[in-house]
Design goal:
With 360 residues, this protein is α/β, with parallel strands linked by helices. The protein is built from 13 helices and 13 strands.
């Protein structure tokens, strides 16, 4: 009899999202002869994976959906069940609602550093995050397996909940794509791929470009979607920034045609797009956010780092790219050499080994 594996992804993002792309890669790698997979969601299924049953839960929130999930699992007669979920607001309810069911193992995967709890953009969000942090500290240790997508994230979650956390990187590195870039001395094409939300801090990127003495020679390409789009466009128009916005799942062409990748996030888990940019031989500038930036850029040895939200420092680094590209390409070559730890093969293997160990 196959082992039942429930995967809960309540709000799948459009194709191209880093965490959802990683989830699809994990799911695709699982031995379907060994595991019977059921994908649960509050939205319609956007992933056409074969041999996976899909159940859409009709519920108003993640919290209330767990009443239905619990009923589904209690009716399941499988001898061995694994329940897999990601992100704090889902993982907490997984543990609270399901931990007392005898034949279930809880496998949680965290994709955002816990510093997230320190960033709030409204009073309601502040209150929700304080409650969620309390629940994480109290209940995370009751999960059977806790994993994180960067070493720094895993280490800090481990200290917070007083339980071992294993690192399984996003399986996002496949190979080095050597690109012969046409260096235009007059213009520099800057790329950023991320959701248009406060967490990604596009305003620091825009201010950094606006304060550069080479602003008129910069073409900024943003690939993404989100609530901050109008604000981003308005700032660019008001400050004469040459901005192009795209919504695309074919990211390869953007890595090829742009000159440098800049990330300005306030916090992350592990930024898949930075690994992908490095695999396309792009020099990288990034805010020194928690977590993942240092694991990719090695404290500045394999890329350029600036303090979170410091747009003036970002402007100076952008200016130095115009004035001395050589140092950026030296660091970029060093970055290629450390990408193997994000290997698709190695991290897929680690994920599947973790699954198997739970039901031995």
């Amino acid at each position: 009899m196959r082992i039942k594996l429930y995967i809960y992804n309540p709000y799948p993002a459009p194709a191209g999202s880093g965490s959802d792309t990683s989830l699809v890669r994990f799911l695709s790698s699982i031995d379907k002869n060994k595991y019977e997979i059921v994908l649960l969601s509050l939205r319609n299924n956007i992933n056409s994976l074969s041999k996976i049953k899909f159940i859409r839960l009709n519920s108003i929130s993640t919290f209330f959906s767990f009443f239905k999930i619990r009923r589904i699992i209690l009716k399941d007669k499988s001898k061995k069940i694994i329940f897999f979920s990601t992100q704090y607001f889902v993982n907490v309810w997984s543990i609270i609602f399901l931990r007392r069911i005898d034949n279930i193992k809880l496998f949680i995967y965290e994709v955002v550093h816990p510093i997230e709890f320190d960033f709030s953009f409204s009073c309601l969000e502040f209150l929700k995050k304080k409650i969620l942090k309390f629940l994480v500290i109290k209940f995370y240790k009751k999960a059977d397996l806790i994993t994180g997508n960067s070493y720094e994230l895993s280490s800090d979650v481990s200290k917070m909940v007083n339980k071992k956390v294993i690192t399984i990187y996003n399986p996002c590195f496949f190979k080095i794509n050597k690109i012969k870039r046409r260096i235009n001395k007059k213009t520099v094409r800057v790329l950023n791929i991320s959701r248009f939300e406060m967490q990604k801090d596009h305003m620091t990127l825009l201010k950094g470009i606006s304060n550069s003495k080479y602003k008129s020679r910069i073409i900024l390409s943003l690939v993404g979607y989100g609530s901050q789009k109008k604000k981003i466009i308005k700032y660019a128009e008001d400050n004469n920034i040459n901005l192009k916005i795209y919504k695309s799942t074919n990211l390869k062409k953007f890595y090829i045609k742009n000159d440098i990748y800049i990330s300005t996030s306030l916090y992350e888990g592990l930024p898949t797009t930075m690994v992908e940019a490095a695999s396309f031989c792009m020099p990288i500038i990034s805010s020194n956010f928690k977590s993942g930036a240092n694991e990719i850029l090695q404290q500045g040895r394999t890329g350029h780092l600036f303090e979170v939200s410091d747009y003036k420092e970002l402007s100076r680094i952008i200016d130095s790219f115009f004035e001395n590209k050589k140092i950026f390409y030296i660091k970029e070559k060093k970055c290629r050499k450390i990408l193997s730890k994000f290997s698709h093969y190695e991290n897929i293997k680690k994920f599947n080994k973790s699954l198997d160990n739970l039901v031995k």
